[in-house]
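Reopening this ticket.

The earlier resolution said the output was attached, but the attachment link was broken on my side. Pasting everything inline this time so it's all in one place.
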Amino acid sequence: MKISIERAALFRSLAHVQSVVERRNAIPILSNVLMQARGGMLKLNTTDMDTSIIDSVEAYVTMEGGTTAPAHTLYDIVRKLPDGAHVDITLEDGGNQISLRAGRSNFTLSCLPEDDFPTLQGDDLSHEFTIGADDLRAMIERTRFAISSEETRYYLNGIYWHAKEENGVKLMRAVATDGHRLARLEMPLPDGAEGMPGVIVPKKTVDTLYRLIAEDVTSVHVGLSEHKIRFAFDNIVLTSKLIDGTFPDYERVIPAGNDKTMAVETRLFREAVDRVSTISSEKSRAVKLVLAEGSLMLQAISPDAGSATEELEIAYSSSEMEIGFNSVYLLDIAKQIEGEEIKFELADSGSPTIIRDMSDDGALYVLMPMRV
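Inline output:
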């Protein structure tokens, strides 16, 4: 293998694929990136056996071939090369080493055979459809904060993605919950997604995908089955195993009888919660909402630090009530509200509260209260 490639193109491609490689790996080949040079393209592939990223980039291929090299080391070398440099990569020493040259810089890296590199197949994907990148970004960004990190409840360690029909309207839904809060975002079902199985996409895959589509991507082709999912866009293919578990019946958590409604300006509420929670206890992060007609009092008390209150004007005409929340969870949800007003649907101090974005009917959040 012998190629020449622009440093910027190689760096961008390595940045895409190296993110899936663990820094410490008991299996040496999984620390490497598979490099295959054929037909004027350099294809880079990394995997952790659960997730795989393939990125293809144009290169001047003098001699076709392939090998594997340490992914993070190669990435760090290319990252430190000067802008505008051209990189020459050659497989040497009977395939045991690659040499990398750029200007006056020369590096030699040990290699492992490309035949040793495992592949994560994404074949037999029963459903395929295309979704706008902006829609996919929104579904990830506005739900992933609620993904559980508790390993014993592994089926909550991702976003539940599924098709749903409600009142004759076909929808695509993304749901995440950690038992304390729930985030649900829905949009019209894309063509071809009808009948898709409900799947749980792991958090690592979700985070990797979000980073990859943060660039100038317009649409993403999705293929999935009950066990794997594949996202393809530009020259990148991300394939992942799905979480093998049953997502709980989240609709049972969404209360139906919350008869008290409060509307408040999103920015003012978010900033007030942030200020008041500064004084709250490190352990509980509790903030109390005291609701009366036309007004909301936010309160936080810490045995060590003192207390804080702030009053806001709200639209509320029901009976007076008090309810406490974890301020971190409350802020996480408030940060997802894009409209000017945030709406709370409450029942009592011990029942789950529904939080809605007044500008987006497709977004719904549920937050469990806490004793204050």
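Reporter confirms the inline version is readable. The chain has three domains: 2-116, 127-252, 254-367. The helical segments are 7-18, 71-80, 133-141, 203-212, 266-276, 327-334.
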